[in-house]
Specification:
The protein is built from 15 helices and eight strands. With 316 residues, the protein is α/β, with parallel strands linked by helices. Helix 3 crosses helix 5 and helix 13 crosses helix 14. The chain is globular. The two termini are 31 Å apart.
Amino acid sequence: MGVISLQNFIFTKFPESLAYTEFKTSSDKKKKLILVDGWSCIKAVYGSHMDFICGGQWQEFRASIRRFVDTFQQVGCDLVVFFTGTVDSARRSEWAERQGEAKDAVNTVMHGIRQRGQPPDRKNFIPNETHPQVLRQVLLSCHVKVISTPGATDRAMVQYALENNAYGILANDSDYVLLNAPRYFSLHHLRFSGNNITTMEVNREKVSELADLPQSLLPLLSYLVKSQFSEFHKVLANNQEKTETKNDLEVLIQNVLAFIRELPASFKEEGLTDENLDELVHKVSQSVSCVLPLDVNLRHSQLSNIFVIGTPRGQR
């Protein structure tokens, strides 16, 4: 399951964690630093009036990007946009899953065109390989700082935000909530009206409260719902009572939440520390390894890495 599905779960099950936000020029005229996930941003700047099937409307695309940057600058926001460089080994299964989802979306679009002579809803919009390159070029021409990360952008953006006192992160990925971004603004809810910019901020503390999960354990939720743990998910499903709901993704997340809640009380009281991290990783790795023929040391390494930023240990 991808991070988008987890984000949708947060939006639908924990609506109280969303707060309406309007970007405004501060009274002291101080600039706000906003970090933007470049790949997620493409859909936001590819205007609804543009044909996303045939494409080719590069002039309109460039103009839309410039308006995006100009509007933020007019309300006192400086943008830094991040793009993923390469897909690291730990993310290959997730990347493969997303490619499969993109292929399914293409099939849905083509089926709609064949059946009705017109494309389906824009929710099936898929950027092509040229869109990120054009976005980079136009951003640079607008004097916006662009950063390419050697691996996934999420941890790099959170680390950059913490080190540079950023106002927040604008993206479409629940990992930024679970990895403890300073503030997370939803690109999905981003709206422009003249020079007014509004969106929804996801409150990490509220998500923690509604999920009945300590903030220090939220990164573990983000990691264990990923598709590479599909066999682990089956074990959890077999251990839980059957429910009437037909939403498999919702059941999966609820099962993982229940698993994490059953961790020893010391983790909930102390959070993740240098002293108990190894114990937690061993417990999770042992559970996974009993159903997956994978190397425990690799699991230990991958699980350890997700806590580098998401816990007090990573913020030292």
